[in-house]
Amino acid sequence: MDSIIFDLDGTLWDPIDTVLSAWNSVIRNNKQIISELTRKDFEGTMGLQMNEISRKLFPALSYMERQQLVKVCCELEQPFIEKHGGVLYPNVENVLKELSKKYKLYIVSNCQDGYIESFYKYHKLEKYFLDFESHGRTTMSKGENIKLVIDRNNLLNPVYIGDTEGDLNAARFAKIPFIFAKYGFGQVSHYENEIESFDELLSIF
Prior knowledge:
Layout: E1 3-6, E2 13-14, H1 16-27, H2 39-43, H3 50-57, H4 63-84, E3 87-88, H5 92-99, E4 104-109, H6 115-123, E5 131-134, H7 135-138, H8 142-152, E6 158-162, H9 165-174, E7 178-181, E8 193-195, H10 201-204
Parallel strand pairs: 1-4, 1-6, 4-5, 6-7, 7-8
Antiparallel strand pairs: 2-3
Helix pairs in contact: 1-4, 3-4, 4-6, 8-9
């Protein structure tokens, strides 16, 4: 193995409380939405692309209404993340520091364009990663974006680490091994390895 590609939400951090604050501040001013979103609502959307998230969270709205609402929410979300950050899982930075001495590290997420940059800006972790890609920037699936990062960086034997079935499917699409972050938001049926906490990666690698 020469490289590790990480999912972001549910793998490196938990951003839900910050994202929830941003989205609910928009929803309070929208007369079409009766109630604010909850943490449980968001936990059920982790790993999905934005059009899937909007359909799940706002099923009563038309496609165009959902698109407009999510656009406003996402525009407000990034300044919130840049200002407040999220909750890094225990020992994330120490582990990334150690792993980066031996492996090339990357991030591939289904998030909107600018989200990973906001994560970097608040938590100052960009120094450990050589490249990243997102659905919002390419409009491609997570599996396609993993392949894009592999090809762009000439990676020979990468692994992907994530916490949802979608992450597993993306790794299978890219034909690389998958490690399940069991502490995250999802449930996964198959994997090459699993970790109960982020620092367990040091015992695997």
